TrEMBL record:
Residues 11-71, 86-140 form the CBS domain. The keyword Calcium does not apply. This is CBS domain-containing protein. SMART domains: CBS. Keywords: CBS domain. Pfam families: CBS. Gene3D superfamilies: CBS-domain (3.10.580.10).
Length: 140
């Protein structure tokens, strides 16, 4: 396996983002429409939080039965804001962080995605799925 490969080679660069002014109904729709599990929350392009699909499930069992349902019961979402539900204490990495270092961070933490930043500027996101796909490619 290659050493010192930067995470920028496997990260998603076209990141779907939320803003503090967005509501949880919008988040729910973005998760479902894009088949993703993590959405960075930004102020401008500065990362300020991360919302996961699991965060939404913690406040509601609305979609626990049928994730493919396009109709969302948003009643519980009106009780919370994105800021109240998102993770605020983030671990970020830079685009030149190696894939190995990224894997080590994710293996020791309780989350499955890392924002990739240049300073405070969000430039990408890398997930455990990205790491698994990279690993699979190494065996082709």
């Amino acid at each position: 396996m290659k050493n010192n490969v930067p995470v920028s080679t496997i990260m998603s660069k076209n990141v779907i983002k939320l803003h503090l002014s967005d509501d949880l109904t919008k988040a729910e729709k973005l998760f479902k429409q894009n088949k993703i599990r993590h959405i960075p929350v930004v102020h401008g392009n500065k990362i300020i939080g991360m919302l996961s699909y699991t965060d939404l499930l913690r406040i509601s069992f609305v979609d626990a039965v049928n994730e493919d349902d396009d109709i969302v019961d948003t009643t519980v979402y009106n009780l919370f804001t994105v800021e109240q539900v998102m993770a605020k204490k983030l671990v970020t990495i830079s685009p030149d962080t190696t894939i190995r270092e990224t894997a080590e961070i994710l293996s020791k933490k309780e989350f499955h995605a890392l924002p990739v930043c240049l300073g405070e500027l969000l430039v990408g996101i890398v997930t455990t799925t990205d790491l698994i796909k990279y690993l699979i490619d190494q065996y082709k």
